[in-house]
Amino acid sequence: MQKVTKRFRKKDTEEIILDLIRYVCITFFVLICIFPFYYVMIYSVSDPGLASKGVWLLPKGFSLETYGKLLTRNDLGLAILVSVGRTGIGTGLCVFFTSMFAFLVTRKEMPGRKIIYRYVVITMYIGAGLVPWYLTMKGYGLKDSFLLYVIPGAVNAYYMILIKTFMEQLPESLEESAAIEGAGFFTILFKIILPLSKPIIATVAVYCAVGQWNSWMDNFFLVNNTKLQTVQLILYNYLNSATALAKSMQNGGAAAAAGAMNAANAITPQSVQMTSIVITVIPVMLVYPYAQKYFTKGIMMGAVKG
Amino acid sequence: MEKSNERILAVRRNRKRQKGMKYLLLALPFLIFVFAFCYVPLFGWIYAFFDYKMGQRFSDARFVGLANFAKLLNDRDILRVLRNTMVMSLLNILCSPLPALFAIMLNDIRSRKIKKFVQTTTTLPNFLSWIVVFGLAFSLFSSQGVVNGFLKQMNLPVSEFGLLGDGNNVWRFQLGLSIWKSLGWNTIIYMAAITGIDTELYDAAKVDGAGSLQLVRYITAPGLIPTYLVLLLLSVGNLLNNGFDQYYMFWNSMVSDKIEVLDYYIYKLGFQSNQYSYSIVIGMLKSLVSVALLFTANKISRRLRGNPLI
């Protein structure tokens, strides 16, 4: 009897230690994930002058001046409009055309269905590369055009596979009975298949929207028009000019550093940086908790072989 | 009787064919679209055999045969770039069990609310662009960032330019950033794999007196190996594709030696030193090697698991 309790006790301490390790590891990683956002957030609402002397766990003073100044700047306001526009229009086009294409590929009557499917899937694995992509887009006249943001993504191979896989699991009887009642292709697609595919459509829409919001390479390489800059690239420019400033402060020595500090007593380059990061991240953070279940669904369906 | 049956069948077949043709006709614009945006760029590879200058017409470009490929032999940078590429890929592969480990730890937490909270917070970084990640890293690790300030206050040694300009820790730093960004996201797939494991196995083992460490060792870990294997094999196909964003964002002259990976090098050749044709050569070879690697991984997968990857 005594032996048994002893063994149990030994086991209990082992479990407790394991629990401890587990909680410490998880808490540590969660903190690492949260802290950067928290820090940037409190810095952005701190008084810029006070904050430049160091912010650690709590905001120093309170000021929304940087927000006000940044948001009323023409370039950022316009960029937000462009980014929202490309996210809305790009996501709409992508969901509409990709799901329609996916539906077509599920049609068993279509000759060469398998070949068409392979023809699309191959494109996921062979990329032409940066320069050929640049030349092609330029050749299509998409340089310095808003269409560059929304057209090339209108049909996406990966999303097509996701949607097609989902549609193939739907019971065939539904559309058969609709077909007997005389429903045509578009009626079946829009009235029956798409409403039933809502989970996957939502997933793809969320992926697509985040991708659009975060996208910057097209802007960086092919759009010089200042009226068509996206939020991401504006953020990049802000960060870069601040980097340059910081560098000049390092190289130029103390005098230059002091000058820069004094000149920027209202708004410091750091506070501009922090605030623009927050402005860029906030839309993703707001949508994210609601969209999370769709993200999870998407990665699971992606794991199912297409 | 038989004749009318045959006729009905013929009519049906005809109708089916008509329907099929209609679908094909509807699919045609999509096929053209895919051709225009995914296949047409491949024709750009032809410039690998020309001495192409930006803005030139194809007819004006000078044919140089394999001269651009011969450049590879005299390129001193390419070995360094390949080294960086392989180091980054291999380090990432080395850390690929981490998400599985995190999933195992997370799965044992009983409270659903905590579980959900942890998943929400740790997956968020995956949905930020590398520009934002750079911004966050800059605010934390630059010479004036929080970390340097903290170290100074504690009178600990500080590197002058912060981690961002620290040439000795480039690989470790970049690896840390990749892990930070992707760990939570990659955990999801393992969490799902764990739910797929038969709970009776656990119950039986518990009856036999297995502790939680033993449960992990004999049930959970073996249960996750198939998933791990698939992801590992897929990453073999991406050995040369580190991505451009991360390395472009974190590039600066102090770390350039160790941070320039293939994707960055292709950009540098094409858009900074204007060697378009040579840039295309490297991009093309990278693409072809990647496809070959993917097929190899596929073959291995077929032999190991009896299932192809793609």
Written overview of the protein:
The complex is a heterodimer of chains A (306) and B (310). Chain A has 14 helices and no strands. Chain A has helices spanning 2-45, 48-51, 65-71, 74-106, 113-121, 130-139, 147-150, 157-168, 172-180, 185-196, 198-214, 217-222, 231-263, 269-303. In chain A, α1 (2-45) crosses α14 (269-303), α4 (74-106) crosses α8 and α4 (74-106) runs antiparallel to α11. Chain B is an all-alpha fold and 310 residues long. Chain B folds into two domains: 2-60; 66-305, Orthogonal Bundle (MetI-like fold), CATH 1.10.3720.10. Chain B contains 14 helices and two strands; from the N terminus they run αββααααααααααααα. Chain B has helices at 2-43, 67-74, 77-94, 98-107, 112-123, 130-141, 146-153, 170-195, 199-207, 212-237, 245-249, 256-259, 262-272, 276-305, and strands spanning 50-51, 62-63. Chain B has a two-stranded antiparallel sheet with strand order 1-2. In chain B, α2 packs across α14 and α8 (170-195) packs across α10.
Main sheet specs of chain A: none
Low-confidence stretches of chain B: none
Radius of gyration of chain A: 26 Å
Tell me the span between the first and last alpha carbons of chain A: 58 Å
CATH topology label of the domain at 70-230 and 296-303 in chain A: MetI-like fold
Q: Quick one: CATH class of the domain at 70-230 and 296-303 in chain A?
A: Mainly Alpha
Task: Name the poorly predicted regions of chain A.
Answer: 245-265
Structural class of chain B: mainly alpha
Q: What is the CATH superfamily of the largest domain in chain B?
A: MetI-like
Strand content of chain B: under 5%
Identify the CATH class of the largest domain in chain B.
Mainly Alpha
